[in-house]
Amino acid sequence: MAESVNRGEFEGSDDDIDLHMSDGSSSFGDISDEHAVGIQPYLFEPETSTEESDNEAEDTQAQLRVGNTDWCTCQCCSQMSTERESVCCQEIAEIRTMLEEYPGDQCISTTQGFQSVCLDLQVLRTAYYGYRQHHGDIEGESNEKNRYIAYRQLVRWCWGWLGRHVRVPIPSCAVSMIRQAFPSADGQYVGFKPH
Questions:
Q1: N or C: which end of the chain has fewer CB within 10 A?
Q2: What is the pTM of this model?
Q3: Using an 8 Å Cβ cutoff, are 167 and 195 in contact?
Q4: Which three-class secondary structure state does DSSP give residue 162?
């Protein structure tokens, strides 16, 4: 596609100037003839990958979870200090599967099973003896030990066996219920640690 401009329209001679390139290529890479004339914004800018866009969306989503419970669908979650901890029981497939055994309950923390497996002191004491036999004693106050064993009980109940050094975030509703049952003396809690 060749375009010509008549110099007579400008100050100068009546000679025609041919603005197209004879072989259709340029030193700037492959630019089609339709881009050879005129300014084309963002012509040489790198394109954004969909991966980068997805990561930015996830970061924004994560920021929206901290400091509120808008993400909760069970209506029992509490505000958590990190994005990893800001998860509802309805978002975890293993817990939703367990909830199928309790058709009237919308939250794992309100089920009779949770009360029995994770909050009953006799069950926690027995689970602690099993833990101590294999891993040794847990240092700390009794409520700290009970919280730790209650978290382990929830994971064992819903996931079964995860394997050594494999950790999963526990839903906010369950963490809140366990913390209410076994509060920290100073009100400080460790939170989720991946390793």
A1: C
A2: 0.64
A3: yes
A4: coil
